[in-house]
Amino acid sequence: MDDAAPTSSPATSSTPIWRRPVSRRAVLATGAAGAGAAAVAVLWKGSDLAQILNRVRDLTHDYQGALSNPRVRAAHLLRRAGFGGTVQEIDRLAAMSTKDMAQSLLDYQQTSNATLDGQLPTLDLTSAKGPNAGAVQAWWLQRMVQTARPLEEKMTLFWHGLLTSGLDKAGPAQMFTQNQLFRKMALANFDDLLKAVSKDPAMMVYLDTETNRKGKPNENYARELMELFTTGIGHYTEDDVRESARAFTGWTLTGGKQLRYTTDSMFVARLHDSGQKTFMGKTGNFTGDDIVEMLVPLRATAERLSTRLFSFFAYQNPEPEIVRHLADTFQQSHYNVGAVVREIFNLDVFYSAKSYRALVKSPAELTAQTLRATGADARAFVAAANAMAPMGQVLFYPPNVAGWPAGTSWINSSTLLNRINFANAAARRTAASSPAQSVDQLTATLVDGNVTSNTRDGLHAFAGAHPDDRAGLLFMVMATPEFQLN
Amino acid sequence: MFSRRDFMKQGLLPVFAGSAVPSIFANGVAAATADSPQATSNGRILVLVQLAGGNDGLNTLIPFQDGAYHDARPTLRQDSGVLTLNNQLGLHPNLKGLKASWDAGQLAIVQGVGYPSPNLSHFASMSIWETASVQGGIGDGWLGRYLNYLDKVGESPNHALEGVSAGSLVPPELRSKTPVTALQSLRTFRVQPVNEHGTQVDVENPLMKFYGSFKTAAPAPFGALLDTTLQEALQASHALQATDATYQAKATYPANSPIASSLKLVAETIVSGLGVRVAHVTLGGFDNHAREKPVHDKLLLDLDQALAAFTQDLAGHGYGDKVLVMTWSEFGRRVKENGSAGTDHGTAAPMFLLGAPVKGGLYGQQPSLADLDNGNLKFTTDFRSVYASVLQGYLNAPASELLGGNYEILPLLKA
């Protein structure tokens, strides 16, 4: 295992945040952070980063197992940072060091996505209503399957599940626009992303900021910004909700189309409540951006986002040391999400036995990896996007503002049958055009060549009994319990 | 019998503890015998209807004579068509089916239901209602604990359709140590065979071997979760396929209504005699911070029409006396409407209990619109009192044990 990247992390090379030139905004933010900011300062100054990292390494004593194999490590990273690897992708990454593997995925701006762009259908955003929901869903699924920048799509999926909006209120063109925003700012600074999301038309419709007016505040966005997007519950009061709702007044949708088809927003000063607001013990003429700048530096925000990212990429319920380390990285990098993700991919624990197959594939991950294995044409993307509903996930349609519950809740008797049946249908659809592959080839690509002996025997028995049924064998591999996990 | 401590202890167990449940493959319980008479619950079935997002109680059970209501709701108030229950209160104009049930003495309404120190977060408050604990959390749901109890006293038919939910997720109320099945369609609830040149190749047996061997090979909880879930799925699927063809609805369910489809699926599962004890359906969309009226009007219309068809269907199949429907929502809305012609998160709201088992009427006390807490209603009946009344008065289960405390029993139900 090479280094866990403390020396290469931007976290340690950049100026500590308390030594940077102090802006008006920063003063406002630090003052508002109150006790939280004080606690952070103590932690930063009083603890040795190396000590924390050593404790993180101590958690990895059970490291090795399947992940000692370079191909398995590469496949693991490609599943987590993307939607699974092809043989060629796995081979290419397996030849690299851990750090270089992560680097090659993180620095995706240098990777051309021209092939994907040439294959994607054109979505008409100029007509009155824009594209329909099915077209936008299929478009995104195609991106997940065919992108040359898997982490870009994976982070877009992460943001969609955290900074939620949905088709139950927002229109397809708005969800498309938001999706592009997430893609563009996939690894950006969190405060910049939240400021942009606060003015994003889909979000403004979904959480009602578009009706939030001076004298007529609407609490919906302000509450969820704190409860779900930043600090989590327990770090703010009902008064903070009411006051920050006033700060977010003034933004409205523009463009002359019907509300849910409008993809532009603008600030209208006369709609903004410019009065004094008292938020988290600080009083001022705050705007929505000011509220974001007060929330993002809070330790609770750093820890919550770090937990969410680690749980999304590695395993759920990370140890406090890991959260602390990632939250430090976040705060010391001026809230840079890319720095945290880079850190996660370089931690020993990411390649530990504790992390291996420790996540259930979400329906999006399962569907995309299945289509990468079977191949897919344009019709297949539309069909597959629809097939995700009975598995429990409809793209652009989270069940509520908290997003999908994820984890083991993806698996129940109904969803498991639908996952298995989808693999069957997808394999059948494209079987004729796919080259014949042996049990060993299929399991090597799709499940790390790592299945129980019973399963291996069963697959060989199936292949022996049905030698011409390529689709059947591909399906059987994708129906294994191993394939359900990530 | 379980002690409160046992429940608290078990409440901390993760969901996958359900892997210890005996499956049909182990104990050979035939689903067809599941509906044999039950000593305690007497085959009674509870259907929960979750109104997700926070239903506007004041525009559901409407204090139409109260000037404060009209003042607080300049654009959202219902000015006409309220279906009066007495000289103070009436149902929303779209609740005509519920009004008919009221007139037939089959609708009980508990007013002002909530709990102390209300939490205005959707998710915190849902969790409180789901677990019947003001701490919320990830432990077994309150009805999951009822399923555990049935299992404990030997009344559980031990098959996966005892608790069912319409949709793709098992709701937290039903989290338990016994299997609970999320259903979307009885017809598709099976492992499709492999179609090799027109020949159907059954794959259930090899898959069972794959998952069975993975149970011990994989780290907890995933191996056990996947294996147990596949077994439950196949068990339920076999039971469903034996009965699928016989059901004919004895009511016309509205088209294009997800809540109607969900209730129809529940009715189908119930009348197929598969041993359903508790069922759960969800109607979402109540979180109307803006432009509430058209959305809320439509939601209540859909709810009312779906419930009317459901009760008619069950009565037609002879299940009228055996099924109690209960609605709940994580909170009501703020008394005063906001500036977006919507309402922000609030507190207390009414609960409806519907069906032949109820003693119709109003229960509890309508909260005052003049005595508010930060603009929110003060609750008058604890929701756990309603739960206790249903557990004790309908399901004949030990409410205090299952709820971890003593709550007033309301005389909502016939003996």
Concise synopsis of the structure shown:
The complex is a heterodimer of chains A (486) and B (415). Chain A has 486 residues and is mainly α.
CATH class of chain B: Alpha Beta
* pLDDT < 50 stretches of chain B: 1-39
Report the portion of residues of chain B in β strands. 5-15%
Class derived from helix and strand content of chain A: mainly alpha
Which descriptors would you attach to this protein?
heterodimer; A: 486 residues; mainly alpha; 3 domains; two-stranded antiparallel ribbon; 26 helices; globular; B: 415 residues; alpha/beta; Alkaline Phosphatase, subunit A; 9-stranded mixed beta sheet; 12 helices
Characterise the protein shown here.
- The complex is a heterodimer of chains A (486) and B (415).
- Chain A is built from 26 helices and 4 strands.
- In chain A, α5 runs parallel beside α7 (98-106) and α10 (150-162) packs across α11 (172-184).
- Chain A is globular and about 75 Å long.
- Chain A has helices at residues 10-13, 24-33, 35-46, 49-58, 70-81, 87-94, 98-106, 114-119, 133-146, 150-162, 172-184, 190-198, 201-206, 220-229, 238-247, 288-295, 299-313, 320-332, 337-346, 363-374, 378-387, 413-430, 439-447, 453-465, 470-478, 481-484, and strands at 251-254, 264-267, 277-279, 282-284.
- A two-stranded antiparallel ribbon of chain A has the order 1-2. Chain A has a two-stranded antiparallel ribbon with strand order 3-4.
- In chain A, β3 (277-279) and β4 form a beta hairpin.
- Chain A is mainly α.
- Chain A has 3 domains: 10-24 and 35-111 and 297-351, no CATH class; 114-294, no CATH class; 363-382 and 412-484, no CATH class.
- Chain B is of the alpha/beta class and 415 residues long.
- Chain B has one domain (4-403): Alkaline Phosphatase, subunit A.
- Helices cover 33% and strands 14% of the residues of chain B.
- Chain B contains 12 helices and 14 strands.
- Chain B has helices at 4-11, 24-27, 67-72, 96-103, 122-131, 142-152, 204-217, 222-243, 258-271, 292-316, 383-393, 399-403; strands at residues 45-52, 61-62, 83-84, 90-91, 107-114, 163-166, 180-183, 194-196, 199-201, 278-284, 323-328, 349-354, 361-363, 381-382.
- In chain B, the strands form 3 sheets. In chain B, strands 1, 5, 6, 7, 10, 11, 12, 13 and 14 form a 9-stranded mixed beta sheet that branches.
- In chain B, α7 (204-217) packs antiparallel against α8 (222-243) and α9 (258-271) packs parallel to α10 (292-316).
- The longest helix of chain B is centred in the last third of the chain and has 25 residues, at 292-316.
- Chain B starts with a helix and ends in a 12-residue tail after the last helix.
- Residues 1-39 of chain B have low confidence and may be disordered.
- Chains A and B meet through α14, α22, α24, α25 and α26 of A and α5, β7, β8, α7 and α8 of B.
